[in-house]
Amino acid sequence: MTAQATDIATYNFAYLDEQTKRMIRRAILKGIAIPGYQVPFASREMPMPYGWGTGGVQVTASIIGPDDVLKVIDQGADDTTNAVSIRAFFKKVANVAVTTETAKATIIQTRHRIPEYPLTTGQVLVYQVPIPEPLRFLEPRETETRKMHALEEYGLMHVKLYEDIARHGRIATTYAYPVKVEGRYVMDPSPTPKFDNPKMHRSPALQLFGAGREKRIYALPPFTDVVSLDFEDHPFEVQTFDQPCALCAAENVYLDEVILDDHGGHMFVCSDTDHCEKRRAEGHRGHLAPETMEPAQ
Amino acid sequence: MDIATQAIEGSFADPVFDAQTVFRAVMDAMARPGTLQPLPIFARPPAPLSATAGAIALALCDNDTPLWLDPVLQAPAAVKSWLGFHTGAPLANTPADAHFALIATPAEMMALDGFSQGTQDYPDRSTTLILQVGDLVSGAPLLLEGPGIERTATIAPAQMPRHFVEQWKQNNQRFPRGIDIVLATPDGVACLPRTTRIKTMEA
């Protein structure tokens, strides 16, 4: 205890003061009790700019304890700037164990992906959300969108999806694809690719959403119905990929395009780096994978 | 022990980590209605406020959250001064003003619709009830379903409010408005958020 106390002596555990944590904790409880409803909260300034995940960081800081194991991903990757710096932040201010392995984490903070490895009961997925209001680009006034949620008046969202069909012949929304929660609230799943929407439906994990700049927290309890909006003749469907991951040959996963040279060379690889590394360690090889694993540095 | 001493003693030994542990238990209970999340004894509030209910109040209440106490908790000055000293929470004038309500004798409590239900615009502005119950097995069994429950869950909390199943049905019908219930037992916590439906009740 003393070693830990000196390590983090300049901050309270997990950075936030206790009154702030209580306020956020109360908002989280309300969010869980009213799935899909955006609970206003008094978002604090964090030692990182808005847009870098301050909402998710505040939620994580309010729920995390010394026994938790934290994983942070940015577009599925454990090793990009946002993920690395948030992981380092919590290592410093909360002295918690961190991991890149989905199965070992108790709390996973994410920016715009849900891990490929199925989540389990007891895990908490914390989303960083930029614009929590699904109706915001259709109706800029908060007074109006609040009334629309209160009256369950979501016709405008269907008009938007219909206009997609009229213009493109299909629903062209590919990320932040609106969902309806338990048949009541229309919710923004945060800018995850719509590929991940089905994973939200009746997930055994608790899902918490934090929007720092917009000062909203919302939640999906485990085993909650999350239905992507669609039409009978234009049913919701997820992205499909022509080829498997170039490194691990995984199919039915979300792939990122990686540019290889200046001559149009490119490859598609798993966006979930942990999933890809695990598969390669198990011996799966894509067409661009090296024959043997490079030794870890 | 005089009232002044009673008011000062019995709070969290380790405020930061104890509050986190209690909150996580309540969060997990709220996310998985009908499950008992075990809690060790963290607080020693003056009777009749129970250790579990006292710990939940310490973890969640502060000067932003008006508290309502049922008549049994209102009576002894020690409970009020203990809560006042450790949480700073003001006492609500009426149940409808309360963010949290602590209820020591749920079987005799007022109707659920007397508490703040929130509004259609802000359904989060409702009262969270913390009911002290003896256990979750000796009362009338409640078959639960809804978000957070994979299929069904069953609890049988003792000393529940009168006509609880009927009152809860009305609470469901007010959704998204409505109250949420935290059941504080001597060894843990379970929750009934407003989304949980009571399917049938075997006698």
Automatic annotation (TrEMBL), chain A:
GO terms for molecular function: 4 iron, 4 sulfur cluster binding; alpha-D-ribose 1-methylphosphonate 5-phosphate C-P-lyase activity; metal ion binding. Keywords: 4Fe-4S, Iron, Iron-sulfur, Lyase, Metal-binding, S-adenosyl-L-methionine. GO terms for biological process: organic phosphonate catabolic process. The keyword DNA-binding does not apply. Its EC number is 4.7.1.1. Belongs to the PhnJ family. This is Alpha-D-ribose 1-methylphosphonate 5-phosphate C-P lyase. It comes from Mesorhizobium temperatum.
Automatic annotation (TrEMBL), chain B:
GO terms for molecular function: lyase activity. It comes from the Bacteria. GO terms for biological process: organic phosphonate metabolic process. Keywords: Lyase. This is Phosphonate C-P lyase system protein PhnH. It comes from Mesorhizobium temperatum.
